[in-house]
Design brief:
By secondary structure, this protein is α+β, with helices and mostly antiparallel strands. Helices cover 49% and strands 26% of the residues. The chain has 4 helices and 7 strands, in the order βααββββαββα.
Length: 175
């Protein structure tokens, strides 16, 4: 079972499972291509040198390019792929990290305010930042670069309203 299936309560249904907008993955891919091209050119040029110590220069180039590749491409890609935004019929969940994991959950009954911001570019590409305030000590969840943020906000409000109606119906039945 993958995330979020292993985190769900009995009869809990996932309504939305996404990660930050795809633009977060573009930079690491571009860095990967650029560094591979630069490394290939540099190593090809270095192999043509007539110098006894060129093997050490090639080794240094490989080490530097691998370090830059990992720092600017691999780590951001993994960070993007390991960030999850999940909305179920009972709660909102956010999880980030692969090695060191951070997670926040807010029950729909405690969702107080949902707001989002979008600049012009974010509106064109269809994403934005969402802030979900909780009516408890849990505080808030800030979701960055949420795809289709306006539809996500509408879904969250609808689910929160459905949850309130369901709870009101249960309290009337139990009284």
């Amino acid at each position: 079972m993958g995330y979020p299936d292993d985190q769900l309560a009995r009869d809990e249904v996932v309504k939305l499972h996404t990660r930050p907008h795809w633009k977060e993955g573009v930079g690491p891919v571009l860095w990967f291509v650029v560094f591979l091209a630069i490394a290939a050119i540099a190593i090809t040029y270095t192999t043509r040198l007539d110098w006894d110590g060129k093997i050490w220069l090639i080794l240094a180039e490989v080490v530097v390019f691998l370090a830059l590749l990992i720092w600017l491409s691999v780590i951001p890609w993994i960070r993007w792929r390991s960030t999850h935004y999940v909305i179920t019929d009972q709660r909102v969940m956010w999880r980030d990290g692969l090695i060191t994991r951070e997670s926040r959950h807010i029950p729909l009954a405690r969702v107080n305010t949902v707001s989002y911001t979008q600049n012009v570019w974010e509106r064109i590409f269809g994403f934005g930042d969402m802030n979900i305030d909780s009516a408890s000590d849990d505080g808030e969840i800030n979701l960055v670069d949420v795809p289709k943020v306006d539809k996500t906000k509408a879904l969250l409000y609808q689910l929160a309203e459905d949850d309130r109606s369901r709870r009101a119906g249960e309290s009337l039945d139990g009284a």
